[in-house]
Amino acid sequence: MKKAIALCLILILTLCGCFGETKEQRIKDNDEYHTGLWITYSELNNMLSGDFKVQFSEAVNTCKEKGITDIFVHTRAFCDAYYNSGLFPKATAAQNIDFDALEFMVQAAHGQGIRLHAWINPYRVRTSDNNIEALNKESPAYKWISEGKGNNVLICESGIYLNPASYEARLLTLEGIREILNNYAVDGIHFDDYFYPENCGEADKADYETYTAATPTPLNIEEWRRGNVNALISGAYTAVKFINKDIIFSVSPAADIDKNYEKFYADIALWAESGCVDWVIPQLYFGFNYPDQNFCFDNLLEKWKKYLGKSEAKILIGLANYKIGTEALPDATEWVLGEEIIARQEQICKEDASIHGHCYFSYSYIK
């Protein structure tokens, strides 16, 4: 039944699709072993504070030297854009440059034969606080609130988010994906682990009450929330594949399978089994001797392989090179020898036929 619902959502949301192609040739996935790297918005901001073209070119050269095949670059982190958008305001750090940062990044990566994936946080607007007045006045979230359409936004203790229950908010995300794919030759669209906001309390109470009042046999609130996220995922996959079936749609969930399902309302196994995602990249940011044995790397790896075993989605593994040498407990004791941990994890991934690659978090820690 769940598979049928997900596939029906794909067909329904196909109506939101559109055809398009950019002139520049994208780089196809030739089924090799992938070595990926995330470049975060904060790393982009650091580059933009200087000579961006020089620094990003150096980053790409470093990636080439280290055998990186895929770069996941933050293009929309907080309902803003590191590219020319008609839907989202320009990220603050990118406002003073006289060129299109994403266009340059695609060209630089492709020049070295590296795929570049546009990394998007579909819901996150602000996480430092929930101060509406601190938002960019051109932000869709601010405009909706100002126009009396606050139902498109969730204001939680943890921050401000686009409302997963809102069709209008979901459509904005899908239009944003199409905008990127129709204007830039990126090789993939990538979501990370920011799905339903954790600890949102009763921020969506009115939406759920509206839903239950109109539905003869409503889902409980947990299944309803998962259904909202499922609709976004199936719509995103459809939007991507309508433009080019070779573009990769990937998701990078947190390591805790149960928390993804119960707190973030992310049914990742369903997405993978229903063919709504091409790559799943769980963030297995733990060593081999973590105090909670459930989160030791080798145990987590086996859990994820079993969890996704019925799907055809490729499994890549997120590795925590940012933890090398950390002094933070409980990782400090083991990660003093972090380079050895990462090397061992790489080898395990490469020797496992069910694993199709690994990804480093993040660029600042591979230099």
Can you summarize this structure?
Helices cover 39% and strands 14% of the residues. With 367 residues, it is an alpha/beta fold. Helix 1 crosses helix 8, helix 3 packs parallel to helix 4 (101-111) and helix 6 packs parallel to helix 8 (221-243).
Residue runs with pLDDT of under 50 for 5 or more positions: 1-21
Could you please say which CATH topology applies here? TIM Barrel
What distance lies between the first and last C-alpha atoms, to the nearest angstrom? 47 Å
This entry's quaternary arrangement is single chain
CATH superfamily: Glycosidases
Strand order of the largest sheet: 1-2-3-7-8-9-10-11
Counted beta strands: 11
Q: Average pLDDT across residues? A: 92
Instruction: Please report the first level of CATH classification, the CATH class.
Output: Alpha Beta
- Main beta sheet: 8 strands, parallel, barrel
Binned, the helix content reads 25-40%
CATH architecture assignment? Alpha-Beta Barrel
Number of helices: 13
Which class best fits the helix and strand makeup? Answer: alpha/beta
